[in-house]
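Sat 14:20. Reprocessing the chain from the morning session after the first attempt stalled halfway. Input below, unchanged.
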Amino acid sequence: MSKKFSKSTKEELLSYLSGFITENKSNKFEKIIKDRTRYLTVVLEDIFQPHNASAILRTCDCFGIQDVHIIENKNKYDVNPDVALGSSKWLTLIKHNDNEENTLEALNKLKKQGYKIVATSPHKDQYMLDELPLDQKTALVFGTELNGLSDLALDNSDYFVKIPMYGFTESFNISVSAAIILYSLTKKIKKSKINWQLSEAEILDIKLDWVRNVIKRSELIEKDFLEKKYE
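Finished this time. Tokens:
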């Protein structure tokens, strides 16, 4: 997460740090940030399979989902770098792991931030995917392949969403489910009149984080800039 500086200091710092990356990389940041969103966010409850954990991060990055909330109760969230392909450094990962049980606290925080909690479950069919209302910010909650979401997550969700399936198999692989749902919903919000884009302040913070992530020892360069600015 970006440090707490004034807007003008952040702008100066971004301009300074941008001098240490290529013009091509800088232009790519400008292009990609326009499609980033926090209107949709992903919540992963106790995911422990490294392949799936990594594949979901890659999917979020590809569809422009900026924030991924990671609930660690019994399982630590491990990323397989060969699958994630560096996607985690472009995302804002928020881990919820301070307590033995973190699900309720995580969902309540999201609700306070204005998110509607939507549980993804093949056993609940309140809404099929194409029927899900997107009238407010939406947090999509995914559980493990073996057990799905916990009862606590299901009990504290506002809606349930289900992907239509027509075969004998009961459910999709979790990373496939995430890809299908995010493709459908990001396409839907971009065709709507919903204000799904990031604010100017969010864009500034995220671009700062991106630049820091691609500069070797960026913290030393940043320290030098701040020392000169305030000397």
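The longest strand covers residues 40-45.
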